[in-house]
Amino acid sequence: MKKISNKITIAIIACTVIVSTTVAVASTIISMNSIKTESQEKMKSVAEANAKDFDKTLIKVTATADSLSKTLESIVDVNKLSTNKNSYENEIRYLISNYCESNKDFAGAFVIFDPSITKEVKEYIMQDGDNKGIFEFTKERDLDKYTPENKDLKWFYNTINNNNANWSEPYIDSSTQLQLITYSVPIHKDGVAIGVAGVNMTLKYFKDSIESMNLYKSGYGFLLNDTFKFLIHNKYGTNDSLSTVENGHYKTLEDDIKSNANGDTTASMEGNKYNLAFSRMSNQWTFVVAVPENEIYAPITRLAIIIGILIILGTLVAAATAIVLANRMSDTIKAVTEVLGKTSDLDLINYETKEINKALRQKDEIGAMTAALSHLRQYLREVVSLLKVNSEKLTDFSKNLSEITAQNSESINIVSSNTQELATGAMKQAKESAKGLEDLSSLSKEVEIIVSTSHKVKNQSGAAKQKSYTGLEAINILKQRTMDNELVVNKLSETTGQLTDASQNINNIIIAINDIAEQTNLLALNAAIEAARAGEAGKGFSVVAEEIRKLSEQTSESTRMIGKIVQSIVDSVSEMKHNMDMSKNAMSEEKLSVNNAEMSFEEISSAIEETEKEIEVLIEKVKAVSDKKDKVLSIFEDISSISQQSAAASEEVSASMEEQSSSMEEIANTSAALNNIVMQLDEITNKFRI
């Protein structure tokens, strides 16, 4: 078994190591994050500050070139340029000299007119050949040098052909052997590019600024153009770009820089991990600073070593302290363990050793545990003494309980037998009562059906009576309607007779009109004959006579048609009169039938009233039977309920007697078990040493 002192020592050392390691790791991580954030902000600040400084110079370059171009556009006449070689020479030289003298950080300024327009070379280039701030005009190139194939003039033709301002790629000027970058702007006249004005800058200006930066131990900066080619780098040349060097290893870095104007990122460069910050300038150049990550975290590395040493020293001190404390605690715990062992062996004799007394005086958990153990042993001694005394008393009580239980058990068996006979009789009576109640319930249901049927018959009788009243009312209404129809038919018959007379009168009128038409026709014919005899003088009268003849013929035709219509009306009226006569006969028969129906409904109503009176008497008698049936049924229900309760009570008493008998048996068994327990308790208490 492992010693407790070793466990305590190991626990203290483990806690010390875990806590100190956790603190060290947490502080290291927090410090690394803090230093990383601080370095990122510092690098971004350096990148943005230098980019702003460079941007100021670039803005000054673009502003100078733009100003020079605009000035020349306002004063130059193209015709004079092509006819007079010396036109504007003094003004242009003055402008260029003025711009160069006021900007000593420029490498030079120039104005070159397109030879294809001027038909000769007109270039004014002022440069600081020794890069000492002394500007001089250079010698003009020969005309045959001005070709698009000349690499020294590539920037010139790009500006002319594209017709917009641009920055050139870095190049070595053949006359000064300086590495230059040119910003050139086209000079427009009437919408046509007639030349180029621009400013030259040496890359040495930017290179000196970048190399003078102090970023940690080996951090450095570099400059990229708008296509991410290197303008200034301590390893790569101006023909290299991020996407091509190292087999495209930096393509991801290019994408990061391309997607953000300012920011920071990380990349693996030259076999080490680098932190980078970048800032975009107004001409889309990008300035980048790069610092090895191990240099940024160098203070953290030193701090981690110091913390590791302190952890080791702290662990050694904690181990020594733990060993001393564990040994002191171990002696006391051994003494307490020895007493616990004696207690487990039922040895409750009071032992007071030096170690136990020392433990009792301690004010910690061990002292409290020792005191509790001492109190427990004292309490156990008292309990064992009391158990021995009570064990003897329990033995006497157990014997008396066994004798009393045997006597009670015999009496309960006799009472149980008598109760069982009583319960059997009560059950028989309850069954007979239940059967009688069942028969009476059936009779009660039949009576209820009769009552219900009687009420239904009464309701149906009332409904039939109401129907007879309704039918009688309908007969009266029908009788009145028949009388009304009879009056209408009589009046209609009278009107039909009048219509027949009127039709006859119309027919007489038509005959008269027809006679008049025939006479008119004869008169027209006679007039036509007389007109014919009169010759030319009677020609007009002949036309009138012809029209009168046509009119008389139309009148005759119309009277014939009216005669047919009137005859049709006369026929219809005759048919109507015949129908009216038949309707009058039908009305008489209908009137007789209605009177007979009225008498029948009155007889039905009287019969229903007599039937209703008889049904009322029947319902009263059935109701009396139903009331008496309910009383008898209630009495039988009470008798059945009492019988069932009596039987149930008898069964409960019998069951109680059986349970009592079983309880007495259990008491007897418990008494025997109690006697065995007392004997076992005596054996246990005799094992204790007090």
From TrEMBL:
Gene3D superfamilies: 6.10.340.10, Methyl-accepting chemotaxis protein, PAS domain. Residues 594-628 form a coiled coil. Residues 404-661 form the Methyl-accepting transducer domain. GO terms for cellular component: membrane. The keyword Coiled coil applies. SMART domains: MA. The chain crosses the membrane at residues 303-326. InterPro entries: MCPsignal_dom, Sensor-like_sf. Residues 1-26 form the signal peptide. It comes from the Bacteria. Keywords: Coiled coil, Membrane, Signal, Transducer, Transmembrane, Transmembrane helix. One of its GO terms (biological process) is signal transduction. This is Methyl-accepting chemotaxis sensory transducer with Cache sensor. It comes from Clostridium amylolyticum.
